[in-house]
Amino acid sequence: xxxxxxxxxxxxxxxVLAGLLLLAALYALFIEPRWLEVTRRxxxxxxxxxxxxxxxxxLHLGSKFSYAxxxxxxxxxxxxxxxxxxxxxxxxxxxxxxxxCAKLLSGLRASRGVYVVFGAHDLWAGAGPLRxxxxxxxxxxxxxxxxxxxxxxxxxxxxxxxxxxxxLSAVMRELSRQRQGAILLAHSPDIMHQVSAMNxxxxxxxxxxxxxxxxxxxxxxxxxxxxxxxRYARRYSCGLYKVGATWLYVTRGVGTYLVRMRFLCRPEVAxxxxxxxxxxxxxxxxxxxxx
Length: 291
Ligand SMILES: [Fe+2]
Fold this sequence. Notes:
The chain is α/β, with parallel strands linked by helices and 291 residues long. It has one domain: Purple Acid Phosphatase, chain A, domain 2. 26% of the residues lie in helices and 22% in strands. The protein contains 6 helices and 14 strands. It has helices at 10-30, 64-79, 98-105, 120-136, 168-172, 192-200, and strands at 37-43, 51-56, 84-88, 114-117, 140-141, 145-150, 153-157, 181-185, 207-210, 219-220, 224-225, 239-243, 246-250, 268-274. It has a 6-stranded mixed β-sheet, covered by helices on one side. Helix 3 packs across helix 4. The longest helix has 21 residues, at 10-30. The protein is globular, with a radius of gyration of 21 Å. The N and C termini lie far apart (55 Å). The site of fe (ii) ion has 7 residues, from loops.
């Protein structure tokens, strides 16, 4: 009787598949969650002299691993010499970490300030002590507040909006009517339906920066994120988008939630280079949308 060639045997292919799955799982567990990446995007909107933003999010501080990773993310952000640094929520994974978190974020260096908004995990851990610790460390928490960036540009931060709407119109009313542009920090891209409503009402927001999705943590080519969080988990899972007149950047974040795994979704520090739009200016060439 003729024996079948080994490459045609079903069992061999089962072994190959099992081996590939094991390698993918080991990579997702032990390599990718610590493999930080700097993502650079040029965005054609900004003050006359431009603005470099280092965008971090979802540190989920709690374990020794998370602190070491976040510390590297802070050092990476500093090396990019941003004008401002922002952290869009989920700073901590549990309570009792506020002083350590504040100490870590006080190490962020940006010539025009460091701005933070809270996510759901920060509220669960106790927003009051965390806000106090961050204030003592010189980190500005924008909790339905605005701050002047100069040149007619403002930064707006809203309280955690994951799973609910916030009173965005009330915060926007604090902005000068003479403003040239506004950057909105919100934890979740769920804010985008409110942003669209504000734009229709003539209160244009130039750029929105969010986290929350973690990019899905586990992604597959073509399929995208395997796990989604929030109303726009798939539509705005990560990357740069143009939504009507507003640019949106959703970062994959630094840390992880539930399981310390990432696949095709590396932790990131985003460097967003805002360039003014004008005749002959660099902003005339729009970057491709991604995500
Ligand atoms: Fe998160």
